[in-house]
Design brief:
- 2 copies of one chain form a homodimer.
- Chain A has about 240 residues and is an all-alpha fold.
- The first copy, chain A, folds into 2 domains: about 10-60, Arc Repressor Mutant, subunit A; about 70-230, Tetracycline Repressor, domain 2.
- Chain A is built from 11 helices and no strands.
- The first copy, chain A, has helices at about 10-35, 40-45, 50-55, 60-85, 95-110, 110-120, 135, 140-150, 165-180, 185-205, 215-230.
- The radius of gyration of chain A is 21 Å and the shape is elongated.
- The termini of chain A are far apart.
- The structure holds a DNA duplex (30 and 30 nucleotides).
Amino acid sequence: MDSPTTAPKSARRMVREELTRRITDTARAHLARSGAAGLSLRAVARELGMASSAVYRYFPSRDALLTTLIVDAYDSLGEACEAAESRVERRDLALRHLAIARSARGWALEHPHEYALIYGTPVPGYQAPPDTVDPATRVTRLLLDLIADAEARGCRPAFTPEMSESTVHDMRNLADQAGARVSPAYLFVSLGQWAQLFGLITFELFGQFNNVVESRAEFFDDQVRHMARLLGILEEH
Amino acid sequence: MDSPTTAPKSARRMVREELTRRITDTARAHLARSGAAGLSLRAVARELGMASSAVYRYFPSRDALLTTLIVDAYDSLGEACEAAESRVERRDLALRHLAIARSARGWALEHPHEYALIYGTPVPGYQAPPDTVDPATRVTRLLLDLIADAEARGCRPAFTPEMSESTVHDMRNLADQAGARVSPAYLFVSLGQWAQLFGLITFELFGQFNNVVESRAEFFDDQVRHMARLLGILEEH
DNA sequence: CGAAAAGCAAGAGCACTGCTCTCTATTTGC
DNA sequence: GCAAATAGAGAGCAGTGCTCTTGCTTTTCG
């Protein structure tokens, strides 16, 4: 298929795309200021100097607007992590690991409301698929590639997990479907760490670490380093 | 101090408490059905057959109502975990660990909206303190006591973490403030696992495991067992 | 070229929300 | 018994998402 997004169709299409972009931009600004609950379609229409009903030519509902913001947030986070990871020496697994983790946390701290949008409570009656699923995997992809590289280099989890048969089956399926050469054990451990990573970020962002941890950045780095050791990627291979 | 909640004051107080309870009850029912975003003060007033303005005699704002629901949710979760943990042989550390984790997950699956209320996106401009902090620590308390018992029995983390000075300091502070005899290393590891535990539950509940893990319960149990091994509580001591 | 079709914007309007204010009835405590 | 505190109801304000109708402009095509 040819790409309809870059095709220079009529002038009308161009101003439509431009206006769509302006709507999402001001919506994102409102989101960053007041959060998802405070995002008002009328307010962004007002700021753009147009009637609220006109916005419905571009987004069929408020939730549709939110959905594009969700996709954008996933992309923004994924891009930040990819950029950070690409800047470090590819052979240094532990540094790549740390770069991904740090940039995920950094992005979350810089865009708390957008982070809440994608890792917080699902918005309405919950409808993710299907546009959101692809961008959502970007950071996961990064971690997956990392442990695939690690395994190819002979790294192994520092502590071999015991898994039920169904879990082994799930891990195999997942690796196949992602096209990654990763053993069930390694995948299992890194899945747990994936949850831990975003659990740490979520706890910090949503206030669960108040009166618990003071030096957040150091604590986070220490935890990530500990995870790297458990992944067996801290030593040379 | 004497307890003013049980004191048989005037008849008016009693009907007030009763009505307050009925409001929170129907509010909780609405919450369970439509989530926090769909909780309407007018709707619960309607269901109770009273004017919406009358509800404001009992709760100064919608957020105040939500706050009590948050406290209740923390208590409900804490109670469920405590009950489950108290039912197992106290010497069996791994089983206590599993009981806490499983009941936390079970409660979350049974009360998804209430779970989202306490571990999802913070409601408005975020205001937790101070009534919420105490019930929020109940399940944390359980885990803390568990590792304190473990350490007293000679258990040690299977993998000793390396920590920065500030983290060691934070861990010492936290142990002191909680009045628990736990080494910084042990506390550090269990804090990470705490984040992992609720990260796993949140991911499962919020759909991050769609197309990733099929047998959720088995996967969860396997992860929890792996955590127990890393805590060094799976073997006898 | 010019008419039909399609796209766009605005306004009015509906049903709903949280919340405030005023007014009246009831209960309480001195 | 009477003044004060309390509870409830209703109207009303400002805001929301969303729909429908009414004009206008641009594109499309015979």
